[in-house]
Amino acid sequence: MDQDKLRRLLDKYKEGTCSPQELDELEAWYARLDHDTDMPGGDTAAQGMLADLKRRMPAAGPAVKPLGSKWYIQVAATLFVGVALAALIFRYGQTGRPDSVSLHTPQTVQARHNRFVQLPDGTRVILKEGSRLQYAASFNEKVRQVTLVGEAYFDVKHDASKPFIIHTGSVRTQVLGTAFNIKAYPEQKDIVVTVTRGKVKVSEKSRVLAVLTPNKRVVFNKDRATALHQDIEADTVVSWVRKNLAFDNESFGNVARQLADRFQVSIKIENERLSPCPTTVAFSGSENVDEALKILCLIRGASFKKVNGVYVIDGEGCTLN
């Protein structure tokens, strides 16, 4: 593949703007990555760097899985940067060992649909469809910092020694442990922070815009740099978190598939007779995968366990009329 085109496709993938055809091209490229002569840094030194990065990438990667079944392309995009740097070092006579290349690249989670994400500190994030969350590999060391583009609901794990900070353009929201919603789309003039539990401080550069408590929100206008304080029924603002999580007489198998998609995990139903069983269940949206599966299995008298990374559900099934 032409190098300029490859670079453009990887950039588009990281931004979440690839078309299905472009994703297929990237998948094909990745399949040839180990031996394709058009790979960036095709010389011996760069190839050695690629091998080293591949060995180290699993250990360096954060706990949250990248979005979608093509997770390996996200890894490839990171490898691309490292290999290109290795080629430059080799070709321009710079000294240094492969270990000198930084692997502390940001982790990016993109949501093509409403997506549950659990951060390394235990904080739960519901990322709205079309939104993006980014954080560094050093997350949870001294200060927990993330960058949000779009909208997300945060339920932050309390840790008084490590403030949690969300960056949305020039606006910064800081908390210790609370639950709140942030709406910050680049194309919209307003950034809106709404608190459902606890207390948050919202700042714009060095100016404090608001200290919010439950059922309060601040609307910051980026054009006029003004902050409007409002009383609000917070539960209505975050109702999107529960979207597509209420099932009425739906098949057990379909509910399980939608949970697998939401949490980006593999779920297997051991007893085929369990899949067609009619199931009525509703989730709050803030559950993690284990909690959601406990609720689902309780409805049908089933059970689940995790085997080699796969959630396996088993139960007696049902008899359909």
TrEMBL record:
Domain Protein FecR C-terminal: 245-309
Name of a matching Pfam family: FecR
Keywords, in A-Z order: Membrane, Transmembrane, Transmembrane helix
Matching InterPro entries: FecR, FecR_C, Ferrdict_sens_TM
An example Gene Ontology molecular-function term: sigma factor antagonist activity
PANTHER family: PERIPLASMIC SIGNAL SENSOR AND SIGMA FACTOR ACTIVATOR FECR-RELATED, PROTEIN FECR
Protein name: FecR protein domain-containing protein
Classification of source organism: Bacteria, Pseudomonadati, Bacteroidota, Sphingobacteriia, Sphingobacteriales
